[in-house]
Amino acid sequence: EKPFKCEICNLKFVSKTKLKIHFRTHTGEKPYKCEFCESRFNRKHHLQDHVRKHTGEKPYKCEICDATFIRNPDLKLHFRTHTEEQPYKCNFCDSKFFHESKFKIHVQRHTGEKPFECELCGAKFVGKVELKIHSRTHTGEKPFKCEFCGARFNQTTHLQTHVRRHTGEKPYKCDICNSQFITKAILRIHFRTHTGEKPF
């Protein structure tokens, strides 16, 4: 039984607390603020997961390979790499996916559906995350800060690439000559020196 009903969308919930949390999706209220950056969240456990990205804490550990993760759902997804389970299959092509959200985004690329629209410029996006990243081009928000030099970025991937310039980490390795690179894009460009490919 779900006696607590949302007055706006009519969804029902088992408790008043769950209704209150849901209602924030309508009001936009985000009472939980990150102490490390400007990010805010409408649920406490979302904040806890986010904070671990700053602290580096990864409490969820794979029993097979000892890989560690910030969130339990990420561990469950990782476990499928051992079992090779890919439960989500595309009806348009032969692609299969571990993760439902990636599967949905993939299908939308086939259908051309872009359900997430920017309120400021009308640009449309396949996923909510892509829209959120895009919105920062309007607000100028750069919530991700480099611990070495203070430079700020609007995407975690940009921060990760930048940090490698400080640490010297080069995780992408050429299979032919063993040269190593900071990003996959630079590795692809390098690989053309072996293949002779000239894309332009």
UniProtKB/TrEMBL annotation:
One of its GO terms (biological process) is regulation of DNA-templated transcription. It comes from the Eukaryota. The keyword Nucleus applies. GO terms for molecular function: sequence-specific double-stranded DNA binding; zinc ion binding. The keyword Coiled coil does not apply. SUPFAM superfamilies: beta-beta-alpha zinc fingers (SSF57667). PROSITE patterns: ZINC_FINGER_C2H2_1, ZINC_FINGER_C2H2_2. InterPro entries: Znf_C2H2-type (IPR050758), Znf_C2H2_sf (IPR036236), Znf_C2H2_type (IPR013087). SMART domains: ZnF_C2H2. Pfam families: zf-C2H2, zf-C2H2_4. Keywords: DNA-binding, Metal-binding, Nucleus, Repeat, Transcription, Transcription regulation, Zinc, Zinc-finger. Residues 4-31, 32-59, 60-87, 88-115, 116-143, 144-171, 172-199 form the C2H2-type domain. This is C2H2-type domain-containing protein. It comes from Clastoptera arizonana (Arizona spittle bug). The lineage of its organism: Eukaryota, Metazoa, Ecdysozoa, Arthropoda, Hexapoda.
